[in-house]
Amino acid sequence: MKKGGGTLSGGDTPLGRHLRFLETFARHEAITKVASLRGSIAQVGVGDGFGLITLAKLHDLVAPLSTSTHFFGFDTFNFYPNPDEDELRSVEKLATSPHNRFGAVTREDVELRIAEYAETAPFSQRKKSRFRIVEGPVEETLDSFEVGGTRFKLVEIDVNLRTGTKKALEFFWPLLAPGGLLIFGSYSMGDWPGETDEVHEFLLREGLMPRAFQDSDYPSGFVVKSFRNNDSDSLHS
């Protein structure tokens, strides 16, 4: 699962800042599609917290009176666990990159950034308790995650590896509200065949057509879960 800066984004450089600007455009597009829905938001592969906090900021701006949306972040906060053989090349490439920041950010770092945002958020949104960060391999943590009555209106999966992606898809898709968005971080990106394979099999199995964001290639795309096949991204419409 991604760690530190998450994907190879260039870090705190002009390129890195430009890419994060484009990420924000994509997430703004996503939030505007789901802001009026009931449900929470999750990011699987939270990295340094930038994506999750950006989703929260945008949601608070678009729906400033909403107080029921909670934000969940999942990550190992460690380097990629147990990559498959066809994923090793990408993992090793990232490990030796000068931009690699894996291991530089801890769960406590992300929680501190969340607390700092909560202090500056709109008054009705100043609740650190809206956020929950879950540490550990998603293949294990989702098995013990207490769902209760929680349902989701947006889930972003950016695990990069096959096993974690498969688990996240199986877990979150039944919990995604009709009209909700499922976002893929690295689908159809050559460096991460495991995530691409699992997402592709999921799309074919569910009969869904992935869409691209208008102004950014990252995250790589999304699908909408709908009420009926004839008003969705379904291939069966």
Please explain how this structure is put together.
With 237 residues, the chain is α/β, with parallel strands linked by helices. Helix content is 37%, strand content 14%. The chain has a six-stranded mixed beta sheet with strand order 3-2-1-4-5-6, sandwiched between helices. The longest helix is centred in the N-terminal third of the chain and has 21 residues, at 14-34. The radius of gyration is 17 Å and the shape is globular. The termini are far apart. The model is unreliable at 2-10 (pLDDT under 50).
Sequence-ordered SSE layout with sheet pairings:
Layout: H1 14-34, E1 40-44, H2 50-62, E2 71-75, H3 88-95, H4 107-120, E3 131-135, H5 138-144, E4 152-157, H6 162-172, E5 176-184, H7 193-206, E6 221-224
Parallel strand pairs: 1-2, 1-4, 2-3, 4-5
Antiparallel strand pairs: 5-6
Percent helix among the residues? Answer: 25-40%
Q: What's the total number of strands?
A: 6
**Integer-rounded radius of gyration:** 17 Å
Structural class computed from helices and strand pairing: alpha/beta
- Amount of beta strand: 5-15%
Distance between the termini: 35 Å
- Topology pattern, helix = H, strand = E: HEHEHHEHEHEHE
Largest sheet: 6 strands, mixed
Features:
7 helices; alpha/beta; globular; six-stranded mixed beta sheet; disordered N terminus; 237 residues
